[in-house]
Write a structure and sequence with these properties.
Blueprint (H helix, E strand, L loop, with lengths): L2 E5 L2 E3 L5 E8 L8 E6 L5 E7 L6 E3 L7 E6 L4 E6 L8 E7 L14 E5 L2
C-alpha cells in the first residue's frame, strides 16, 4: 500500500493549462516508476503518462503526447503533470499511481483530483 495525494485539479476553459501535483509517502518514491491515469465519467481507467525512477525516461498516451509533460522531484517525493492546451475530452478524475505493473490497482493510486474542461 502507498500514500498518494493528488492536488491541482479544477474547472478550466478549453485551451487552458493546469499543473497537477502528487505527494507521495510510505514507500521509497525515488526507487519507483510513477504514472498518471485518468477516468472520465462512465469510462474505465486510462493510462496517461509514466516516468521512470530518476526521471530520465517519460512516456505518454497518444491522446496527450505533445500537450502534457510528466516530471518528478525525488527530493520532495512529488510527481507532477503539466497539462497544456486542454480539451473537453481531457475531463476526468486524474490519479497518480505507483509502479509499472501495479498502477491500475486501487491500493496503488491516490484518491484523485477532478479536472473539468468546459466553456
Amino acid at each position: 500500500q502507498v500514500q498518494l495525494v493528488e492536488s491541482g485539479g479544477g474547472l478550466v476553459q478549453p485551451g487552458s493549462s493546469l499543473t497537477l501535483s502528487c505527494a507521495a509517502s510510505d514507500f521509497t518514491f525515488s526507487d519507483s516508476h510513477m504514472m498518471w491515469a485518468r477516468q472520465a465519467p462512465g469510462k474505465g481507467l486510462e493510462w496517461v503518462s509514466g516516468i521512470n525512477s530518476d526521471g530520465g525516461n517519460t512516456y505518454y498516451a497518444d491522446s496527450v503526447k505533445g500537450r502534457f509533460t510528466i516530471s518528478r522531484n525525488n527530493a520532495k517525493n512529488t510527481l507532477y503533470l503539466q497539462m497544456n492546451r486542454l480539451k473537453p475530452e481531457d475531463t476526468a478524475v486524474y490519479y497518480c499511481a505507483k509502479g509499472l505493473t501495479t498502477w491500475h490497482l486501487p491500493g496503488y493510486r491516490g484518491q484523485g483530483t477532478q479536472v473539468t474542461v468546459s466553456s
